């Protein structure tokens, strides 16, 4: 598995292989809201053969955006702070950075993408498996599988926040055995609590992602305090 693919799993995992996205590298001039407010932190631990990485996702009930933070984003530079927001309503990702005493935001256009080739959802089978309780939440189990990989994941709707408001469902290619009623059930409050990814051909690519905490927060980003890279360099807005 390439690093890029692992990253996409980490960022967009709710209803694995159903909610999918991609990024264009074009800068965006869209005006951001004054602030982004969050009320929950979803803590995710990804365990890979060679590493363990912790991610913090910041969610806001009924909002089509979420924040993302990880020590890996500013690894190697203790003086640099980074926080990313993905805003589906505006169609942008905003990277908020504090560096060299400046507050800078870099905005990029966000677009939906259809994964091709080995990520073709229609090539997967889809079945239910035993349920389990994770962090006190009852979770329904699902298994998605093809000739190369097997993905077992557990979703709960017993939570106040979700990624479902951020990414609409792609209904074009359901995997074999998928019941559309499952999507309806979790479209408002579906949150993945655990995922076990098994690469059948290269075991070194296998990994586990698990929610290790869902905590309340009053964190917010004041976007109005952040200027462009050019303005930070004294080259205007």
Give the H and E element order: HEEEEEEEEEEEHEEEH
Strand portion: 35-45%
Strands across the major sheet, in which order? 1-8-7-6-5-4-3-13-12-11-10-9
The helical percent reads under 10%
- Our count of domains comes out at 1
Low-confidence stretches: 1-24, 114-118
Q: Overall mean pLDDT score?
A: 77
CA gyration radius, whole angstroms: 18 Å
Number of strands: 14
In the CATH hierarchy, what is the architecture at level 2?
Answer: Clam
User: CA-to-CA gap between the ends?
Assistant: 40 Å
What is the fold-level CATH name, i.e. the topology? outer membrane lipoprotein receptor (LolB), chain A
Morphology call: globular
Features:
3 helices, single chain, twelve-stranded antiparallel β-sheet, mainly beta
Summarize the structure.
Helix content is 8%, strand content 45%. It has helices at residues 3-11, 180-186, 229-232; strands at residues 22-27, 35-37, 40-48, 51-59, 65-69, 81-87, 92-99, 102-111, 125-134, 137-145, 149-156, 191-199, 207-216, 220-222.
């Amino acid at each position: 598995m390439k690093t890029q693919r692992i990253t996409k799993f980490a960022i967009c995992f709710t209803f694995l292989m159903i909610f999918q996205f991609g990024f264009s590298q074009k800068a965006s001039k869209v005006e951001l809201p004054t602030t982004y407010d969050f009320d929950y932190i979803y803590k995710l631990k990804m365990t890979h053969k060679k590493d363990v990485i912790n991610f913090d996702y910041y969610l806001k009930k009924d909002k089509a955006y979420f924040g993302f933070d990880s020590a890996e984003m500013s690894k190697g530079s203790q003086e640099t702070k980074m926080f990313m927001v993905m805003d589906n309503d505006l169609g942008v990702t905003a990277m908020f950075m504090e560096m060299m005493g400046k507050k800078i935001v870099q905005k990029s256009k966000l677009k939906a993408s259809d994964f091709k080739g080995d990520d073709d959802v229609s090539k997967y089978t889809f079945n239910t498996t035993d349920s389990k309780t994770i962090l006190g939440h009852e979770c329904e189990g699902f298994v998605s599988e093809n000739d190369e990989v097997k993905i077992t994941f557990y979703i709960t709707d017993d939570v106040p926040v979700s990624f479902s408001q951020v990414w609409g469902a792609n209904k074009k290619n359901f995997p074999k055995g998928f019941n559309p009623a499952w999507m309806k059930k979790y479209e408002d409050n579906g949150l993945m609590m655990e995922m076990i990814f098994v690469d059948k051909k290269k075991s070194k690519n296998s990994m586990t992602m698990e929610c290790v905490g869902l905590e309340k927060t009053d964190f917010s980003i004041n976007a109005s305090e952040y200027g462009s890279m050019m303005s930070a360099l004294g080259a205007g807005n």
